[in-house]
């Protein structure tokens, strides 16, 4: 019997204001400020994905980080590959399209990248996959001597309809983590200790637990250094 993936409309609408409020800035914190690229691409603004993104933005801003919110739906990003952006293995200096160069600048400016997404067919939604295909391109994210992303931290936060045990039993925890962690982040030069792939399980029914998972993942990505 085929397993049932999380369908595009699998997330139930979430309340506008979760009970767990975003933490306030701590004036005693000695943590360095970071530029964080927060990436998402869910078609519904009332989805759990969207609420987690808003929570992340509020928290990171409150902690003094600069947040560049990249909502691929709102910005009308086209995920389709064209000849202009197809990698040329013989030319790492290929000039890609202006749209892709604009996104490359945002990726390069980030100290940390957070991608929040629903897991559809056990992978990235097409919009996010197309963003990786077009923007994380040869000569920029990989295939160059500078390794521009070597010092970048990255968090992948996927929303999964399965519970944790069943997701692992089916082998998808290993497969998805390997694809995103090693196949994308580490392939592009990020150190393993700077990359995390985390999941919000039971996304159809989870409540405040989703926000706790987000907070824990952000703590891991950008640990607070107290004086």
Order of helices and strands: EHEHEHEHHEH
The rounded distance between the terminal residues' Cα atoms is: 55 Å
Task: Give the oligomeric state.
Answer: single chain
The proportion of residues in beta strands is: 5-15%
Number of strands: 5
Residue stretches low in confidence (pLDDT < 50, at least 5 long) are 1-10, 12-30
Mean pLDDT: 87
Tally the helices: 6
Major β-sheet strand ordering: 2-1-3-4-5
Helix percentage:
25-40%
Which descriptors apply to this entry?
227 residues, alpha/beta, five-stranded parallel sheet, 6 helices, 5 strands, disordered N terminus
Write up what this structure looks like.
With 227 residues, the protein is of the alpha/beta class. 31% of the residues lie in helices and 14% in strands. The chain is built from 6 helices and 5 strands; from the N terminus they run E-H-E-H-E-H-E-H-H-E-H. The protein has a 5-stranded parallel beta sheet with strand order 2-1-3-4-5, with helices on both faces. The radius of gyration is 18 Å and the shape is globular. The N terminus is likely disordered.
Reconstruct the topology from this structure.
Blueprint: E1 35-40, H1 48-62, E2 66-71, H2 98-108, E3 112-118, H3 126-135, E4 153-159, H4 164-169, H5 172-186, E5 195-200, H6 209-221
Parallel strand pairs: 1-2, 1-3, 3-4, 4-5
Helix pairs in contact: 1-6
Short description:
With 227 residues, the chain is of the alpha/beta class.
């Amino acid at each position: 019997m085929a397993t049932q993936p999380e369908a595009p409309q699998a997330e139930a609408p979430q309340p506008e204001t979760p009970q767990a409020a975003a933490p306030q800035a701590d004036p005693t914190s000695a943590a360095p400020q970071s530029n964080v690229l927060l990436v998402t691409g869910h078609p519904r603004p009332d989805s759990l994905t969207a609420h987690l993104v808003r929570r992340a933005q509020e928290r990171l801003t409150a902690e003094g980080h600069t947040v560049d919110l990249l909502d691929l739906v709102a910005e009308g990003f086209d995920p389709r590959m064209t000849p202009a952006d197809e990698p040329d293995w013989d030319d790492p200096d290929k000039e890609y399209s202006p749209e892709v160069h604009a996104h490359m600048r945002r990726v390069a400016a980030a100290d940390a990248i957070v991608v929040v997404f629903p897991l559809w067919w056990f992978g990235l939604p097409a919009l996010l996959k197309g963003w990786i295909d077009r923007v994380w391109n040869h000569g920029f994210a990989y295939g160059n001597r500078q390794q521009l992303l070597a010092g970048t931290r990255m968090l992948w936060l996927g929303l999964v309809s399965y519970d944790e045990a069943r997701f692992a039993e089916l082998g998808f925890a290993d497969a998805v983590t390997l694809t995103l962690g090693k196949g994308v982040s580490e392939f592009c030069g990020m150190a393993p200790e700077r990359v995390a792939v985390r999941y919000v399980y039971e996304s159809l029914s989870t409540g405040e637990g989703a926000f706790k998972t987000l907070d824990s993942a952000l703590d891991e990505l950008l640990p607070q250094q107290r004086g």
